């Protein structure tokens, strides 16, 4: 410390960081613990007890926790200053040559306080084991052993906390130290690469997940890794999160986002084969409970699972009727059926594209009649009344006698007359077709 105060080799604050609270630990042993034990040893013939002394002073042994927690950082500081400061290197070499150091390094001597509490515990265990049952010191010694064990546990907890904070800080550094993420109270549970499945085109792309005790971070590796290693795309709160397993994949549904993921690329081809034969389980996930609509992100129904709008039933095509997703329920709908915007709670109440049904539910507003008529197709206007009371309704392609494609129309089988098939080919009155013999 005298050398540090002279300012020639190492700053004084660096010395304090290296040795932490070792001065307080030394004063405790010199002024209290050692004198009490020495006094008891001198009176051992009349009062053969040490358990009460250790009980009285054992709580102060928890001060070792601060020293233990700082030990790794102290060793790192010594290494750093050894490499960059020749005067510091000369000072350490000179100290280690002294007879009192017994040819041992400074780091070796600094390790002694770290091992002190475990040695006290082992010594006291051996002492209690060898005490006769009728010894007047048995009760106090056993109580003192419990207190020493508590001090050792406190030191171990300090080491674990130090390691946790170091690992957490390293993760934050890789994420770019974003203000809304950095929190020393967080606990990293797991991290690793993952394959995200696209709802639109059924392809996979490699992403990276960080799972904390309170949030899931969905990240992408940065192309130019200067500073941060990953970029955070989405943050999903763990509270309210659901996990649904599919064959070869699983769905993470949170309030802010829903993601379908798989652990390895090998499952992608097998996943495609199951989707076509089991689409109902995927479609049902888009149907939220009414109290959840708009409050949590839906799972989008995949584009390739749907050939027509899930609201008006008109078929999709690449030019005039493209696919869109309702941000509230996740259905695949056409532009006309999703030409509405409503604030969604999971997206910080920002307006999002939604379908008509979700718009009415979320806002409570009924559309004007002219808006309703404007958004309906020709066939919808003519067939709406009967389609709403039908057993089945869909577009079908009529074939001529040669098996070639002909007129395409909207077909309806009403509930009250299931033997009659209604065909809407244009805005005129519907044609009636007898369906009992299979002819038209």
TrEMBL record:
<keyword id="KW-0206">Cytoskeleton</keyword>
<dbReference type="InterPro" id="IPR051092">
    <property type="entry name" value="FYVE_RhoGEF_PH"/>
</dbReference>
<keyword id="KW-0863">Zinc-finger</keyword>
<dbReference type="GO" id="GO:0005856">
    <property type="term" value="C:cytoskeleton"/>
</dbReference>
<protein>
    <submittedName>
        <fullName>FYVE, RhoGEF and PH domain containing 2</fullName>
    </submittedName>
</protein>
<feature type="domain" description="FYVE-type">
    <location>
        <begin position="303"/>
        <end position="363"/>
    </location>
</feature>
<dbReference type="InterPro" id="IPR013083">
    <property type="entry name" value="Znf_RING/FYVE/PHD"/>
</dbReference>
<dbReference type="GO" id="GO:1901981">
    <property type="term" value="F:phosphatidylinositol phosphate binding"/>
</dbReference>
<keyword id="KW-0479">Metal-binding</keyword>
<dbReference type="GO" id="GO:0001726">
    <property type="term" value="C:ruffle"/>
</dbReference>
<dbReference type="Pfam" id="PF00621">
    <property type="entry name" value="RhoGEF"/>
</dbReference>
<feature type="domain" description="DH">
    <location>
        <begin position="1"/>
        <end position="158"/>
    </location>
</feature>
<dbReference type="GO" id="GO:0008270">
    <property type="term" value="F:zinc ion binding"/>
</dbReference>
<dbReference type="InterPro" id="IPR011011">
    <property type="entry name" value="Znf_FYVE_PHD"/>
</dbReference>
<keyword id="KW-0677">Repeat</keyword>
<dbReference type="GO" id="GO:0005085">
    <property type="term" value="F:guanyl-nucleotide exchange factor activity"/>
</dbReference>
<dbReference type="InterPro" id="IPR000219">
    <property type="entry name" value="DH_dom"/>
</dbReference>
<keyword id="KW-0597">Phosphoprotein</keyword>
<dbReference type="GO" id="GO:0046847">
    <property type="term" value="P:filopodium assembly"/>
</dbReference>
<dbReference type="InterPro" id="IPR000306">
    <property type="entry name" value="Znf_FYVE"/>
</dbReference>
<dbReference type="GO" id="GO:0005769">
    <property type="term" value="C:early endosome"/>
</dbReference>
<dbReference type="InterPro" id="IPR017455">
    <property type="entry name" value="Znf_FYVE-rel"/>
</dbReference>
<keyword id="KW-0862">Zinc</keyword>
<keyword id="KW-0344">Guanine-nucleotide releasing factor</keyword>
<dbReference type="GO" id="GO:0007010">
    <property type="term" value="P:cytoskeleton organization"/>
</dbReference>
<keyword id="KW-0963">Cytoplasm</keyword>
<dbReference type="GO" id="GO:0005634">
    <property type="term" value="C:nucleus"/>
</dbReference>
<dbReference type="InterPro" id="IPR035899">
    <property type="entry name" value="DBL_dom_sf"/>
</dbReference>
<dbReference type="Pfam" id="PF01363">
    <property type="entry name" value="FYVE"/>
</dbReference>
<dbReference type="InterPro" id="IPR011993">
    <property type="entry name" value="PH-like_dom_sf"/>
</dbReference>
